[in-house]
């Protein structure tokens, strides 16, 4: 099993649909500063179900949607598809190729698909759970992430830990409820 291709559309700096083919072995992404290399890694984390905006280097989840540039209007949705080669049957599904899609609209609504069929995030997590990929199984160490954690203010460092533990969204909800 290996990652076969990644298609991004309206995700961060990738306004137009862009497909990257991946081969077995090590993949290197090269390019000038700010050209979108880290955005490629963010796209993989996002399509696999990442729920934390901070882990995707944004302030809120909507920041993953193409925000527009001087010459191009913002878009209303982000979409990422990750295609996995399953010829060895590592994923418990009867397909030699498995595509996972995540789509998000500015309204905050999200959609997930396995091979084009709508599903829940839970279905994706279950499909990947024994395969070694997925939210808890792979490790993405973002550029400058260790540095920024070490140099962060105590309250920001706490936010990193809370997000990793999955409690940040509950604290935000609580704060919102108290404000009302
Ligand atoms: P470096 O070599 O400095 O690490 P990089 O190739 O990793 O650079 P990224 O961090 O992937 O670069 O990309 C940053 C670019 O993505 C910035 O130009 C930023 O404006 C753009 N970007 C991020 N989010 C969005 C968005 N929602 N809409 C449009 N552009 C975005
Ligand atoms: Mg980078």
Automatic annotation (TrEMBL):
ATP binds at residues 32-39. It is found in: Cytoplasm. Homodimer. Required for chromosome condensation and partitioning. Contains large globular domains required for ATP hydrolysis at each terminus and a third globular domain forming a flexible hinge near the middle of the molecule. These domains are separated by coiled-coil structures. Belongs to the SMC family. This is Chromosome partition protein Smc. The lineage of its organism: Bacteria, Bacillati, Actinomycetota, Actinomycetes, Micromonosporales. The chain holds residues 1 to 180 of 1194 of the full protein.
């Amino acid at each position: 099993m290996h990652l076969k291709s990644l298609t991004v559309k309206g995700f961060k700096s990738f306004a137009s649909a862009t497909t990257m083919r991946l081969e077995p072995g090590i993949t290197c992404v090269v390019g000038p500063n700010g050209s979108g290399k880290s955005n490629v890694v963010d796209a993989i984390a996002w399509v696999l179900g990442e729920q934390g905006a901070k882990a995707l280097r944004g302030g809120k989840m909507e920041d993953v949607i193409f925000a527009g540039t001087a010459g191009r209007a913002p878009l209303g949705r982000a979409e990422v598809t990750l295609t996995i080669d399953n010829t060895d049957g590592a994923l418990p599904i009867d397909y030699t190729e498995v595509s996972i899609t995540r789509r998000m609209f500015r309204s905050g609504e999200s959609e997930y698909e396995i091979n084009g069929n709508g599903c829940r995030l839970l279905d994706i997590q279950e499909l990947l759970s024994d395969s070694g990929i997925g939210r808890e199984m792979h490790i993405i160490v973002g550029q400058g992430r260790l540095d920024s954690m070490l140099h962060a203010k105590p309250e920001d460092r706490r936010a990193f830990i809370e997000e990793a533990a999955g409690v940040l969204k509950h604290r935000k909800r609580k704060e919102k409820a108290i404000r009302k």
